[in-house]
Amino acid sequence: MLQIIQATCTNGELILNEKLSSELEGKTIQIMILEPSESTQPIDSQESKIQQFLARVNNYSFPLPADYKFNREEIYDR
Description:
Layout: E1 7-10, E2 13-16, H1 43-59, H2 72-75
Antiparallel strand pairs: 1-2
């Protein structure tokens, strides 16, 4: 799942601008922090760059079956 949510950092904690899906309850999630640019670029340009980045991520992403197990021993010929 890929979801973009804005948040504000207050006293070292992230305060989300919207609630997370109940599907995420009890799960560990990864967070990517994209700091807004201080430049004079319009917001549309910044959002476009984010969308381009996420499109590149999607090009190199693929779903794994729920029962997938990584066999580390096979890689290291153990």
